[in-house]
Amino acid sequence: MWDSIIKVLGGPLLAKLVLAAVLIEVFLFLRKKDTEGAMTGYALVSGFLALRDVVSAFLPNPALFGAGDLVFFGLLLFICIKPFRLGWPFWTIEGLGLVAFIALVLEASGLDLGLGADLLRLAALVPILGLLLLPLLFRAQADTTARSLSLKTWLPLTVGSTVYVVAGFLLGTGQPLFLLLVEPAFYGLLFAVALIFVDIIQGQLVSAVDYYEESVDSLYDLLLSTGTAMRSETFLQDVVDNMIRTVVDRTGADGGALLLADEFEETVSIRAICGAYPPPFKLPENLPKTQDRVVSFVRHARFKLGEGILGEVSRTGKHVFVPQAGPDSPLPDNGDEAWLKSGAFIASPLIVRDRIIGAVSVVKTGEGSFSERDFDRCKLLANFGSIAVANSFSFLEAAERSDIEREADIAADVQANLVPKKLPEVRGIAFGVFASSARGVCSDYYDVIPTKGDKAVVAVGDVAGKGVAASIVLVMVRSILQLITASTKDAATLLQWVNRGITGKVDLDHYATLCLAAVDSASGAVELANAGHQPAFICRAADGNLETVEAKSVPIGVERGTVYGSTRFALGEGDILVLYTDGIVETMNPQGKQYGRKNLGAVVQRARASSPSQIASRIEEDLLGFAGQTRPHDDRTVLVMKRSKA
Amino acid sequence: MAPAAKDIQVNENSPLFEKTGMLHKEFPSDFRQIRYFTLLIVQSAPPDIKEINLLEQQISEVIKNAVKHGNKCDPEKKVRVWYDFSPEHAHLIVEDEGPGFQDLEKWNEFNRKRQVLLEGNDFEALAEYVSFRGERADDNDGGNALFAALEYWDGGFVFNSKRNVVAMLKRFPKKRRGVKVESEK
Question: The pTM is what?
Answer without folding.
Answer: 0.68
